[in-house]
Amino acid sequence: MRATELSCCKMKKIYLYAASLAIPLLAQGIELxxxxxQDQLKVYSSLDSFRTHFKQTKRLKGLxxxxxxxxxxxxxxxxxxxxxxxxxxxxxxxxxxxxxxxIQQGDEGKKEQKWTLGSGNVDAGSKGLxxxxxxxRLDAAEIxxxxxxxxxxxxxxxxxxxxxxTNDPFLSLKLQLRKxxxxxxxxxxxxxxxxxxxxxxxxxxxxxx
Length: 209
What we know:
Layout: H1 3-28, E1 30-31, H2 34-40, H3 42-45, E2 49-59, E3 66-76, E4 80-87, E5 91-95, E6 99-106, E7 109-116, H4 124-131, H5 133-137, H6 140-146, E8 147-151, E9 157-161, E10 170-177, E11 183-190, E12 195-200, E13 204-205
Antiparallel strand pairs: 1-8, 2-3, 2-12, 2-13, 3-4, 4-5, 5-6, 6-7, 8-9, 9-10, 10-11, 11-12
């Protein structure tokens, strides 16, 4: 066999070996930089305030059971979030820089509970909501600080927290975006094995207060 033929065979083997190493990386997705995350979510950067309707389904691990709810999410920058559930029963969750307020309407009238974020007296569920603030606000800079974000071949974004915390109920998140970059669906994989799926309508600008 000629030397040139041997050289070609060797190059082919090297190429195939390199390709085999690259396949797992492609399967895992490519991590995005802060500017790339900003570009993916650029539709939200021009909105000081926005509103979107949501439908939420929670699938409980080990049970053939789905818990469904729907309502409206309103975001007023820099950090005010109002999550209003209209079905199956009214519930409002308000979050800002320092405080989380839960308002429930029951047979005995309105019941309101408040927690100071970062005070240490917030339960695990509320801490999880606190960690979701960046996602509900669609703040690209904050997301980049808190999460490793990778884009899959399907175009979906997979997000994992940079800091592992045992009291964080969410192991990872998956985002499905529309062509204009607006959030279509958000999947939250909980530490318990439950999966929370939330679908959103395109954002609508909200007039200032």
